[in-house]
Specification:
about 15% strand, 5-stranded mixed β-sheet, alpha/beta, about 45% helix
Amino acid sequence: MINDKMVRLLAYVTGLVNQKLLLQNEYLIAENRILRSHLPKRLPLTDPQRSTLAEIGKRLGRKALSEVTVIVKPETILAWYRRLLARKFDGSKYRNAIGRPPVPREIADLIVRMARENPGWGYDRIVGALSNLGHTVCDKTVGNVLRRHGIAPAPKRSQTTTWKDFIAAHMAVLTGIDFFTVEVLTWRGLATYYVLFFIQLESRRVALAGVTKHPDAVWMEQMARNAVDPDSGHLRNQRYILHDRDTKFCATFRSILESAGTKCLILTPRSPNLNAFSERWVRSAKEECLRKLILFGEGSLRRAMADYVRHLHSERNHQGKGNILLFPGASSTKRASPAIERTQRLGGLLSYYRRAA
């Protein structure tokens, strides 16, 4: 009898407690919703607050959460709990190094240099070249380095050729040709003379083809015949010639050159940089010589240009070739005498210093 009474008493008390808890929960839910309506739509929560809600929400389950959650959705609380579990097994904070060690700067620079200097080299070819230098890398590393520098793989690099690469590959057989004008004082006043010249790009040797006031088609044809002469022509052993779209380079002039095996490469409009060696030589000739002289007649112009070309070849250091003399004479290397001699051209306008013989 006592046991039955105790059971009924416990059931009564438990029911009262459950009922009281249900009322409390209902009140708290209603209160939270009222408070939530007065707050912003999104509440910033700290990591400890998220962890607390995640732990309790996991025990309640998705169905129960959907009935009581107000701040966030049940899926968000469960996602927080999964993140909490993942954090337990995250050992990244205990690692001594982060990921794979980076490629040394020296090796990366070598990879980029080899790819740019050799458009036909693929990843494996670059790996082999690096191994010859004592560097061990894989082809994927080479690909990643080139990708970071915006360099395409070998097939795409070898399909396109820039003017810079073309000129570097054909420098020994490539010549630039151009005109420049000079105002010369004559008995009839100032006259405009046209100077035609050739410049061999590899050696920087300049040849004056001719000087005239009337560069018509007949004169240009004769200049072409002189240039391709097998004994004394300036274009012997030259396969390509660069010139602009000046109408003085007529079709007959080009046909004579091409018949001798020299192909004419006509520059695109308004592109002086594509014949930069010729343009730079014209600037040097005018700044160092012609603009400092008053020329009387065609003979004066020819003598000035001849002296300047001789000075350019054997007495003037060329910065584009390592600041050396292009074609030094035998006396320029003698150092037997401590005395210094000065060689003058054009009345001291051009000077060259050397050891006395």
